[in-house]
Design brief:
Oligomer: single chain
CATH architecture: 2-Layer Sandwich
Helix content: 25-40%
Number of helices: 5
CATH class: Alpha Beta
Number of domains: 1
CATH superfamily: OmpA-like domain
CATH topology: 60s Ribosomal Protein L30, Chain: A
Strand content: 5-15%
Strand order of the largest sheet: 1-2-5-3-4
Radius of gyration: 14 Å
Shape: globular
Distance between the termini: 29 Å
């Protein structure tokens, strides 16, 4: 994977996260599923980046569908996510998506109570937003939300790993 492309991707995601965290929005209802121009592409162990962001930031993403996402019951970013988020932050601060906004959608596997998983998804999205803010992305560019376990499809550990992620998409 091209390291520069990953840094641009991460930079973009981070900018959006920071903007969304400018006073963390607490929502009692899950956000509607975002409309993507295409399916999200796996970007790192715990992030999925929409194709429009990947194209704009010239990200060359590898297939990490089988890689672990967030650890079970955790919201801390894995070291493998840092390069992707740095690239996204760069793209959002000085690159082709400068000034654009992104949405971070935290997700969880179906184990545990629905309310807990919704909060866990929110913590995961906030973790990404905080990291993007540290990389210089304006908090106004980032919106965070959670889908919790609502769209989870896993029925075993391999599937649950895929459910434990944050999707990064351009905001409308």
């Amino acid at each position: 994977m091209n390291v520069r492309a990953v840094v641009v991707s991460c930079a973009l995601a981070l900018g959006s996260l920071i903007a969304a965290c400018g006073g963390e929005k607490a929502t009692s209802k899950p956000a509607a599923e975002p409309k993507l121009t295409s399916a999200p592409l796996p970007a790192s162990p715990s992030l999925n980046v929409s194709e429009d962001i990947a194209k704009a930031c010239k990200l060359h993403l590898n297939d990490v569908a089988s890689a672990p996402k967030f650890d079970f019951d955790k919201s801390e970013l894995l070291p493998a996510d840092h390069d992707v988020l740095a690239k996204i932050a760069e793209c959002l601060t000085t690159g082709p998506l400068k000034g654009q906004s992104i949405r971070l959608i935290g997700r969880a596997d179906p184990r545990g109570e629905a309310q807990y998983n919704m909060a866990l998804g929110a913590r995961r999205a906030s973790s990404v937003a905080d990291y993007l803010a540290r990389l210089g992305v304006d908090k106004k560019q980032v919106e965070t939300t959670s889908r919790g376990e609502l769209d989870a499809v896993g029925t075993d550990e391999a599937g649950w790993q895929t459910d434990r992620r944050v999707d990064i998409v351009l905001a409308n």
